[in-house]
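User: Predict the complex with glutathione.
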Amino acid sequence: MKLYGSQTSPYVRRIRLLLAAQPYEFVDMQIFAEGDREKLLALNPTLKVPMFEHDGQMVFDSGVIYRYLTTVLSLPALSWYQENQLTVINAINDSLVTLFLSARSGLDTNEDRLFFNIQKQRIAASMFVLEQQAQNHEFAQWNYIAMSLYSLLDWVIFRELLELDEYPALQAFYAENKQQAAIATTDPRLT
Ligand SMILES: N[C@@H](CCC(=O)N[C@@H](CS)C(=O)NCC(=O)O)C(=O)O
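Assistant: Here is the predicted structure with glutathione placed in the model:
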């Protein structure tokens, strides 16, 4: 089993947390640096991480990798409710990546622009829903959904993308799970 990714990516981290007890090779790539970008392009035309290689099969996208691993590792399939939770987590993650890359491209994301405003509206609405679910203790089990949520929150803190003051239940979830397996070794601050 071989996982291609980067130390900072929250999408990669959720798979690393899932594989915490498994032997696998981690290929740490600098996806925006020239050499690794060529390697990435040769392996995956979407130019995104993570990718997963097993038994001569290459699998793209964290969600598809999870589905692949449900078979290989006999993990439980996600319920439709959990699928929706993951979609909400991914919506925040994707919009934050979009804003992050916009800022890195020299754009002022504080400008009153439709493109930036819809990302921010999606992030706020989705964070509100996750906060309510955390208040209802819906992330009490350390499963793939909780791992995905933790990876998102820690990346938000690491990159200073959002203030978490308005989300006390999500902060409590974050604090409660700091000691889980592979959290320390997958910390994005280790870059
Ligand atoms: N839907 C993908 C999203 C993966 C993704 O956006 N990864 C980011 C790193 S956090 C990436 O590779 N970004 C490169 C880019 O957007 O060019 C998944 O779940 O794996």
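The first strand starts at residue 2 and ends at 5.
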